[in-house]
Fold this protein.
Amino acid sequence: MAVPVQPKTRRRLAALFSVPLAFSLVFFFVNQASEHRETRLLEVQRLAGCVTQLRAHARDSESGERGFFLTGDPRFLEPLQVANDSLSEWQRQIRSYAAERPEYRADSERLIRLVNQRFAEAWDGVGRKRSGAFTPETLIAHLNHEQDTMDQVRILSRDLLKRLSKEEFAILDSQQRYARGSFVFFFIGSLLMIGVIIWLYYALLRYLAERDIANAKLRSVNTDLEGRIEERTRDLMQTNEELQQFAYLASHDLQEPLRTVTSFSQLLAVRYQGRLDAEADEFIGYIVNSSRRMTELINGILALVRLRKAPLPTERVSFEKLLEQAEVSLQAAIRESGAEIEHGTLPALMVDPVQLSQVLQNLISNAIKYRRDEPPRIRIAARREGREWVFSVADNAQGFDPQFAERIFGLFQRLHSREVDGTGMGLAIARKIIERHGGRIWAESVPGVGSTFYFSLPIALEESKAETSELAGSFISKI
């Protein structure tokens, strides 16, 4: 069963978990922002590096071409060739870095075109120099045109680098502000966390102190309650013993005057039958029947009293043998009614043979007593279900309304008219016997079709003598 949590405890737990959770979320978002700024800074720096490298390649093309023009030595073309070989890779990189930055994309493409143009002019000049196609006038015009291209490269690259440098400084300044803010936040947060931990510590100490006080009070109340329960139990046991003695003595003392009334009423019925008028004979019959019924009631009360005092058995008994004993006791009623009794395989359990034989006898007797016009058909069976043996006694008698299935097991409860003999104690006694053995009893019925009475017994009654003795002791303590 779930233990209820006090509102104060819930608030403490909420505070304990909410503060670290809040710090974790803030730290996550701060970390994400920092990573984003670092990514931007890296993109800016790489883009600036590509711009610088393209400008350097343009310079290499210029210096290589000018050296070749002045000396005619092909070795001066090596820087131009090296720069030309790596030009495409640097162009790919600057396009890649500028792809996510639309504000630099157009200028980057323009720079790439100018650098390509500068390399094309350099190779064109080298080719014309080798072929001797230059005149002083055309050479000067060529060099002026190359100078214009190179100036555009320098201006554009300088502008790009200036913008990239400005953005880099802005990112670095933002990182510095975030670093200071993060330091202040975590410093304040750490103080707050320490405060929450201290508060929770003292709250826990208060809770433990209150719990100890509550436990001490509870132990005191439990001790007082146990004392009251023991006193009440002693009073109840004493009262129960006195009631049992009273019931036994009252029933026993009532039998003597009842026997006298019964004997003399029977003598009146024998000696004066027909000698008095019909009304007197009827009155004498009432006295005889009432005396006999009173005797049966007293015997039933005595049987109930004896049930509580009788020890439970420690020997295994076959239910087939118990059924035979019940049939012997009821042989006159069975023969008179023409009843047929069938049974399947019945187990052997450690039960009181007298009491369980009485249970079977009561159930069979009821099936015969409340029969219909046709001969009784009684079927007794047993099956094992889980940790129980379930017995059934089915008949084709009159049956009863299912709504009274529980009532019929009460003392002095009868559903049929007084024309059928009975005290209303048989099923009550059967229930006491079954419950003493750790089982239960119930009934199902269809009026006009028949009834089935069930009773269960624990499979522990199949165990050894010592184990059954322990079980019997527990049953007696419950009773």
